[in-house]
Amino acid sequence: MAITVLVTVAVPPLEVVERDHSVSLSPPDAPAVKAMTRMGELFQESNSESVAVIVLEGEEPLGDEAHRYYDSLVSQLKQDPEHIQHIQDFWGDPLTAGAAQSADGKAAYVQLNLHGSFGQAAANESVQAVQDVVKRTEAPPGITTYVTGPAAIVADMGQSGNRTVILITLVSIGVIFLMLLLLYRSFITVIILLFTVGIELQVARGCVAFLGLHGLVGLTTY
């Protein structure tokens, strides 16, 4: 019981440790990761493989007002080198604008190289920084802005997984409770069993959180 109290009080919850110390989904020695990192270094763009994309979609072909909005987003992103390593500003250059705009002129995008690797806490923070810029910048009427790309998808999946942990846990406990009740036909016996398992689970979670907090094991939602 003392160990349970210790790991509960002295160690942050496992979900918090996973969020703040999440490791990359891609091993750094994977050929694809090494190639992408090397490419970023050779072109002096970034040293990570984490990529996000901002997409502007309009009900009508994007005009000057949409361009000013786009320029405002890019300007704010350039002021955040802590999270944004490189911006492929094709739509901001008349010579390359056509490559970043749809054939009907109703959509355009800008690609970002972010700090951190896929799934890593640093990459998730970078995605959040991009989303914050989009949220606080008012879009012109008829323009919808999306943050997507590999890094954003991984970050969203992680958040979705964390949000469902409590629900899945409660459902699992309910199913186990019913199964034990059918087996033992005694509420007191089932409650004692679940209480014992709950203590064991809390100790295990606390130990894993402690190891992850000090970098002894890698943690990720996946």
UniProtKB/TrEMBL annotation:
Signal peptide: none annotated. Keywords: Cell membrane, Membrane, Transmembrane, Transmembrane helix. InterPro entries: MMPL_dom, Mycobact_MmpL. Residues 24-221 form the Membrane transport protein MMPL domain. It is found in: Cell membrane. It is a multi-pass membrane protein. One of its GO terms (cellular component) is plasma membrane. It comes from the Bacteria. The chain crosses the membrane at residues 165-184, 191-213. Pfam families: MMPL. Belongs to the resistance-nodulation-cell division (RND) (TC 2.A.6) family. MmpL subfamily. This is MMPL family transporter. It comes from Streptomyces doudnae.
